[in-house]
Amino acid sequence: MEEYIKLVEFLGVTLGPDYEVVLYEINEDQGKIIAIYNGVISGRNIGDPLTEFTKKSLEEKIYKNMDFRPNYRGIAKGNKFLRCSTFFIKDDEENLKGIMCINFDGKRFEKVAETILGLCHPDELVNQNYFQRIDKDHLAKQSENVTISIIDYAKHIIDDVVDKYPSPENLSKKEKIQIVKELNDKKIFAIRQSLQFVAERLKISEPTIYRYLSNLNEEE
């Protein structure tokens, strides 16, 4: 993988500060970052593990049917939207050795676009994001989460489920149980500290969640 490590730096320097270049080494369906350039874009560092999205891609073995996956949406911490592309590094027998990802952060260019729009449209239209036709909440749900922290990943999933329901003060017991069931189906409670986060979001005690989970297991 040594030649690819050099390529990471070359691409990072050539493409510029708006592009993050990441190289994973893969061993037995597990992987970690062995080189990264402009990691400030996603907040990742050498030694960090695969993202949940990438793990799922490995489980589904999508690399068997393609050499690369270009131009899909990603999201980093703080709802920072990225344009992502992935290249699968394989040996002569089509076994996966590594993954190289290039993530583009276009935030700086969005500001330039706003300035250009301001030159030819009334200020009130630009200020109201009249020309912003992307539903960012929907877009976030359709995007890869490139934030590496498993805790942040758990919080993201918990928020995604809980936010579909009324505020905690207006939730019925049945709705709270349904939320716990949805999160349990997503294996969230296998992640350390997730039970605490759910209890805080639903404004109930951790023993109450344990009781809900116990009842759900008995029903199954």
UniProtKB/TrEMBL annotation:
Entries under Pfam families matching the protein: HTH_22 (PF13309), PAS_6 (PF08348)
Organism superkingdom: Bacteria
Domain YheO-like residue range list: 2-113
InterPro entries, per database record: DauR-like, DauR-like_HTH, YheO
Transcriptional regulator DauR-like HTH domain mapped to chain residues: 156-213
The protein's name: Transcriptional regulator YheO
